[in-house]
Amino acid sequence: MNLGYSILLGEFVPANQARPTDVAGFQIVCPCCKDPVFKTERLGRKDVLEFFSHYASKVGTEDCELRVAGISEGTRASTNSASRSQTLKLFLAVIRSAMAVAWKDDPHARRWAEVEGSPALSWFVDLRADHMATGRWFKDADLDEALDTAISDVDLMALRNAGGLDVSVRRRLVKDVISHLRSPNAAKNRKTLILHGLRGAVEAFWTCEALNEIDIPMRKMFNALLSDTRTDWRAWVKRMNERQGPHLDAFNDLHFMIEMFLMRDLLRLPVVRMLENHRAGRAVLEGIDDLDYLPIAHAKSDEISGPSI
Ligand SMILES: [Zn+2]
Predict the structure, then answer these.
(1) Over the stretch 87-129, which tens digit does the pLDDT of each residue have?
(2) Do residues 92 and 277 lie in contact, with contact meaning Cβ atoms separated by under 8 Å?
(3) Within a 10 A sphere around the Cβ of 51, how many other Cβ atoms?
(4) 70 CA to middle of ligand 1, Å?
(5) Ligand 1 center from residue 61 Cα (angstroms)
(6) Cα–Cα distance, 39 to 23 (Å, whole number)
(7) How far is the CA of 127 from the centre of ligand 1 (A)?
(8) Distance (Å, rounded) from C-alpha 171 to C-alpha 188?
(9) 219, 209 in Cβ contact below 8 A?
(10) Which helix (H) or strand (E) holds 69?
(11) pTM of the complete model
(12) What pLDDT, on the 0 to 100 scale, is given for residue 192?
């Protein structure tokens, strides 16, 4: 395809104006399916033809190749697959690494490390990732409303006065990242970012638990989710399905919390600094050790960040 789409810039980028390193630096994806692409070139009759191509034709990417331009199978096959997979890794690592800086001073880091690989939690994340990929979760139709909630306590005036990236640009970015997360080659990012939102929810639970501000259905749900085996969690889900009521409410709240924590941190992606780095020829995340600060309206010092539970 001749055109890619940059998640960070929010613009279409012609292939002949992009360097191979721009793909990771500007986070360039297929304009159709938002799957990562790579820059490649080949010798035409008169000059060098430059284009973007999908990494692999997975289910869901075949049509957009045709829609965006139409590049022969032979051309794709002729590019070096080893270097491609390196680039894909680099591309996908940018967003993951950027989001990971959110946890740099996390007081719960050790406790989280103990539970993050637990069977129930992994199982839950896999299932949610599946629902996200198939459009049953993080639906396009619901994104604006969810984003409204995620920014509801952000002081937009203070953000503008501080010269920060406007919130409308940030909203656009979050939507682009989420459509990228649904793409076929983004499975690892999808799981990592769902886990990111889930970590926010779990840590909020720990904070509320320490303050003794948690209701019983919520406490039971988190304890089952963080248990050593899948048995407790399965039993909890079964009970939730049968009895619904407060169990179902807790389950719905958990999803809402994951969405909110993920969106809130995606809104804080340090895009300007990432682009400055890339343009200066530095590694995209060089020197970046925190997400952007979003000023909160009427913030109270004893308030925990993120949605309350
Ligand atoms: Zn595509």
Answers:
(1) 566 777 888 899 999 999 999 999 999 999 889 999 999 999 9
(2) no
(3) 21
(4) 11
(5) 5
(6) 7
(7) 24
(8) 23
(9) yes
(10) none
(11) 0.79
(12) 95
